[in-house]
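User: Structure tokens for this complex, please. No commentary.
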Amino acid sequence: MADSPSDKLAAAEFSNAPILGPGHDFASVTDKISSIVLGRGTPTWWIAGFLISFALVMLLMVSVTYLLVYGVGVWGITIPIGWGFAIINFVWWIGIGHAGTLISAILLLLRQQWRTSINRFAEAMTLFAVACAGLFPLLHMGRPWLAYWLFPYPDTMKMWPNFRSPLVWDAFAVSTYATVSLLFWFIGLIPDLATLRDRAKNRAAKMIYGLLAMGWRGSAVHWERHETASLLLAGLATPLVLSVHTIVSFDFAIGIIPGWHSTIFPPYFVAGAIYAGFAMVLTLSIPIRKLFHLEDFITLRHLDNMGKVLLATGLIVGYGYMMEAFMAYYSGDPYERFMILNRMGGPYAPMYWLLISCNIVTPQLLWFRKVRAKAGALFAIAMVVNMGMWLERFVIVVTSLHRDFLPSSWGMYYPTRWDIFTFVGTIGLFLFLFFLFLRYLPLISIFEMRELVAEEEEKKAAG
Amino acid sequence: MDSDRENAGQPDVNISVLRQSSNGGGAPRFWRGLEELGDTAEFRNYKENEFPHGANDPDAKLDRRDLLKVMAASAAFAGLTGCTKLPTQKIVPYVRQPEEIVPGKALFYATAVTLGGVATGVLVESNMARPTKIEGNPDHPGSLGATDVFSQSSILGLYDPDRSQAEIHDGRIGSWAEFQDELSSALGAEKGNGGSGVRLLTPTITSPTLGDQINAFLKAYPSAKWVQYESVTRDNIREGAKLAFGEYANAVYRVDQAEVMVSLDSDFLTSGPGCVRYARDFARKRRVEGPESKMNRLYAVESTPTNTGAMADHRLRMKASDIESFARALARELGVSTVAAPPVPPNVPAGWIAALGRDLKQHPGATLVVAGDQQPPIVHALAYAINQALGNFNKAIYFTAPIEISPVHQWDSIGQLAADIRAGSVTTLLILGSNPVYDAPADLGFKEILPKVPFTARLGLYEDETSALCHWHIPQAHELESWGDARGYDGTATVIQPLIAPLYGGKSEVDFLAVLNAQATKSSHDIVHDYWQAQRPNGGRFDVLWEKTLRDGVVADTALPPKQVSLKSGVGAEIPAAGAQGLEIVFRPDHTIWDGRFANNGWLQELPKPLTTITWDSAAMLSPKTAERLGVKNEEAVELKYQGRTIVAPAWVMPGHADESVTVFLGYGRTRSGRVGTGTGFDAGWIRPLATPWIGTGLEVRATGEKWALATTQTQSTMEGREPLRVATLDEYQKNPVFAQTELGSDTLSLYPAVNYAQGNQWGMAIDLNACTGCGACVVACQAENNIAVVGKREVMIGRHMHWIRIDRYYEGGVDDPQTYHEPVLCMHCENAPCEVVCPVAATVHSPEGLNEMVYNRCVGTRYCSNNCPYKVRRFNFRLYSDWDTPSLFGMRNPNVSVRSRGVMEKCSYCVQRINKVKIGAEEQDRPIRDGEIVTACQQSCPSEALVFGNINDPNSRVSKLKAMNRNYKLLEELNTRPRTTYQAKLRNPNPEIEKAAPV
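Assistant:
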């Protein structure tokens, strides 16, 4: 269709749109971001949100206590569905984390400037998501106090973990991911913590930020080392984006049951992770830019780019679904065929079709520039994708398990209230940590924004 | 004395000096004694002398050498204490252990357990003088080494914490002595009139000793009456014989001689006296080794689907009240011309009866027609007539004298008892174990009339519904705690010996009768011993015979001899009255709770009932057509109204059930059975009147619209296009002997190097689907052997039952008349186990002998192994299901199997504790393990020998031979799991005439 002049202008606006609002210099950028942390008074909306998430954390505490006292039977899991909400949540949270690492690490190595204003809180999102995710493999065990047996250490029993098991690989992958993400995030924070230390008026703030800043003086040597360290960690973190969720997908792919036993899982899961992660980044960044008035930093171009990534990964995920269905038919395997037909028409069919509409149908709206330009529409689509990705894990875990080879062992999975409380509790935990982060740490990378200002000025000077 | 004190060197104290010094200065402010207050010179001196001068003196010079000397001296002094000579006291070691008991080694004792008075011989495993497991007695004709579900669960009844533990007298704790006093005065009052107000109410008694005692009692009180009553009454069978022969007679079936059998609503393979033996004999004639083998053939005509019907090669369903017509038609077909011609029962395909008749006539003397226990006497008489016409008497069927001491029409006598109580002519009612308030026909109203009797005493295992209304309740000793005797299905007597002294001071039936016979001081052991000594003096060497009897578990040569009976003329000549129209109601004993006596047995409550897999409840079964007509849905609460009484029951739509008929099961709806059984299910006995113990017409059903959720262990009943169970007809098998085998070769590709299993013992199991009747004995045996927990209805509903072996039930064909198949599934012990790969902590590993071993204490409970098991044989302890707290259950548990805690996975281990026991024994004796030496619990209990365990590396072992058969196949072979447990496909042996017409 012919583009109207206004459309062309819009396109031009987007592709060349600045990724930093006009009229910013070093001082204003630093001021804007650090004032969120150091400014007096806490916005009411932050207090309200913080209290709500705190209440949910308390709900989590109660749920976990109840679980540890009475056992994993308080959840809805049974034989044959031995995994339910816990593993679904685990995969969902871990998946979400991948976007943060992709933005921080991969986009850094690919020198994508637009990552600058979103990478800090995206990486924080990753960390908190991994924290929430890491709870579930512990909690879902029948005897969680022995979880350390999954790690290799020389013990008196001369027993090592079974390295053939994907759950052991998970233990390595997730702990590596958590460690590297934490390191990467913290290293990146150091210059900003120093900024805060220098600007803080409050003695306590000065001391805490000072401690955390680890003696950063901003010397050239420091910056050089910092740059090298960041690049190294980015190099370390990049393969993790692909490997961690691949390992998580092996939890299923190594299994024998139809619906799990498929080689499509690693790429499908990685794409899904990035998909879910970007949806979560959008979910977080749109309110942040509104409530903190950061439209100059997190611009429409950022939203546009994120929307495009969402669309791209959504298409890959959609391709994955279609291939799964096609392969089930093409293989001729009666168990595989039944599995797909059961997903589409069995007792959990509503979940499956909701999943398709959330994950395949809804994101098609992102083809339209107009949709990508509206923050509200993007937020809504991102929430839908969040839900859709959770549903995807539900469909994978539950529908594959509940009807497998022998019809005599078919069953149904019904979550109990403790399943739901625990899940909502971890959402609360995530928000709780995130709110703390928003209030007490610079949510956008100050020094990188300053670099951006410098580059923009250079570009302007050049022509 | 002061002077003593002075002489002891204490300083003198002058009070005046004291007062002076305390008033003035210089006296110490705080003082402990007058001397100190006075601070006299003597005191100071004393103070100095009290402590050796040099000890606290800091100036005392002690050089290094002196110090060392002093230290050495102290050390030497310290050692001196060791040199004392203690007084010698002799202690004596415990060298005389109790005879035969070796800690860790189990002993087996032969005894019997009874149901309805009929004994099945058992061997009870006793660990450290505690009975822990029941097995069949290979020497008892009714067992041959196998058990049914009731015998297996008996052990839990012994250790039931809800068993009554004290005598109760009008609601407070009494004593045995007090009871004896009151009883003797009550009986004493009756002595004058010969005991006309005395009634003794017992279940069916086959025990010779008890019979002797009761007869002695009745001699002393000639007007007293002995009432026998069973809720699951065998009156119809007794009256059937009386109708046919003019006298009571006991029918014994020689199923091993029958080539063709017809079951007329009979569940003879899994229910009733002799069922264990009949199942074995039946299965032995269905073991098809190769295409040239022959099979027996079973026809079933029934209303309620049963396991026997499921095994049948042809099954016709019809209302229970129509079976009489069928029997008449069959009798006329076979030439019993005196039988009045009936209207042909509905929905019998044309030519069916004729084809059946031809088949039967082809095997004279080698056929059997068995009438169901619940069918009216005329059907039994007709069955006997048919058997005679076929020449089966004294071949496939023979008759003996009744095994009951006193065969009577029991329901008539209980009716008479109720009438007597109403009339006020009963003054003393003594109840030996029966529970009439719960299970007597509802219209007799025992709950109202029992309190009317002036003196009631009950001997009962539990303080239940009846005991609550009796003046005296005496705790009964469990069968495993009692001396006694009983007869088996063919009359073989067994002396029942106790495995343990009564846990709660209970009294056995023999004890109770001893009191009645004023022999209270004689022990039950002596009574039983003396009875048998009187019967079999053995030429003065009775002690030898006694010991042999107790050891073998059977009294030699007590099987009742065949007795000649002759059919009365004109059997069945009367034209039957026109059947009443309307919905039929059929009462049946429950498969696992029987008449309610096992309601508090958790194993039996949780044992999935055959064909429905319902647990913890019973249901009102009806056919899909009838359900549709009545507007009733599955698991919907329905109101059943019969003869003016109403109960609410959950409906179960039962494929294969007869139309226009509703089956309800006895034994549930109990109000005082203990913590396990109270409140489960509904009381079908409430609508069961005296006139119709089993089959009635005129039932009204009303759907209430409310749901009554039932806990079943299997929700999907069809095979869904897969073939977990392979079945073919004998013809198809003969044409294609390898029909069961998959096209995969045996060496499917694997990335892993092959493990060499050629050395040593390699364990495997073969399950013959032709033999499995679905009775469930293996499930309970496994539960007993492996300390498996009971989880309760709510957990079973979610799917968390813990049985290591389960019996899958598959329907094939339409929902109205399906084929039913049973398949026991346990851990396959796959050589390529999917579970082993995925356990993160290596809690499930493979032994060099082929066992997949579950290591409970390593399991962290991720449940990946269960997710990855395609057979879903792994069970998880989602909560702490094992009972950590109830002390009485500690004694019951098998000491060789750990009790699992919360969060741990468990599964069949091929009874590794039994394997190891035999291995150790064989190693000690330096010999290889013999085939058949290791018997798993499930194998041992199976009446039809469907499960066979053994060494697959030994080509001569039974299991190897079974696996070598061409009927052998592996479940889910295409997954390349290489299971060690394999199946032999099921074969049906249909009658070609009937099969051609319409495959049924």
